[in-house]
Amino acid sequence: MLVLFTAAFPPRLPLTTSLLDGFGPAGWTLSPGDYEPLDRALSEISAEYHRAQNHDEGSDLTVQLLRQLLGAVLLRLARLPHPDRAASEGMGGEVFRAFRYELERSFAATRSVQKYAARTGYSPRTLTRACRAATGRTAKQLIDARVALEAQRLLVHTELPVAAIGRSLGFSEPTNFGKFLVRETGHTPGGFRAGQRRPDLGIG
To answer: What is the pTM assigned to this prediction?
Structure first.
């Protein structure tokens, strides 16, 4: 099950902030005791979302319920055991912090590690070493993941044509955007949009 939501949709929960910035843990290995409650919570989100789609078309009560259910899932994820985020960021140090800042500024303009290195004043090797230390992923993997995340959000939550979304993310040709998204998500842009579109509740 894939849950997409706009940045403004979840309730404000300071303890979940690190999960939502794109630099938190990419995945967890769940014990049966952790998996079962999360599975139930996600199933409840799915059921309420289909209710909104098929019956009340996203009433205020349903939207608020979905928001709180999503918050509960995020809180469950936040309490799962995983490497201390502050410690992992410290391993990447100032290099990783500079990369994070530049990535948020420039992910729609370039996916070149060399350009990020030049903009932050470090070599590509130093940048990748810092990213691996902080997240376990390379600089290129983090760049591509950030672009793919934005592509998914735009496909689900806007009416922009696929080609326009690709151009906004730096792809001059729709075919290149399509190949990129297939590589990152396993879906074509059109297929992803068709499979995820729901009433505009801020979550999909």
So the answer is: 0.62
